[in-house]
Amino acid sequence: MKKGLTEICYKFFTNLANPTRLAVLEKLMENPMSVNALAALLGQEQSMISHNLKPLLRCKLAFSERQGKKRVYSANRETVSMLFKAVENHAEKYCPSGGRCLKGEKMKNG
Q: Residues 3-54: pLDDT tens digits?
């Protein structure tokens, strides 16, 4: 592993270790949408979605485009699709217990 890659990986995966951010990315992989649309779909406050979009935008895991008076967000499909596929492949091949290997770990909202 390249020197410094540990820190990069830590920061990268810490950014993704948030259920709200993952849910946002999952929805944005389906369709680009506004913060209000994301909030409605995820049953979250608009401010919570906005707060969680900021690190995704900063790391270029999501993109923002102005359309008239609103901003429309989309996922960085190149990166996010590969990440989701890698996790899905790993889960299917090595986690036949349905994720019970993560015993004791509970998702935190935020």
A: 688 988 898 999 999 999 999 999 999 999 999 999 999 999 999 999 999 9
Domain boundaries, the chain: 18-99
Q: What is the CATH number of domain 18-99?
A: 1.10.10.10
Q: Do 84 and 27 contact (CB within 8 A), yes or no? A: no
What's the half-sphere exposure (Cβ side, CA atoms, 13 Å) at 9? Answer: 7
Give me the torsion for CA of 15, 20, 24, 29, rounded to 10°: 70
Site of tokens 């492949």: 89
Residue 67's beta-bridge partner residues? Answer: 70
What is the mean pLDDT of the segment spanning 82-101? 82
Question: Which tokens in the block code for residue 37?
Answer: 């649309």
**Which residue type sits at 4?**
G
The rounded distance, in Å, linking the Cα atoms of 75 and 57 is: 9
Predicted TM-score (pTM) of this structure: 0.83
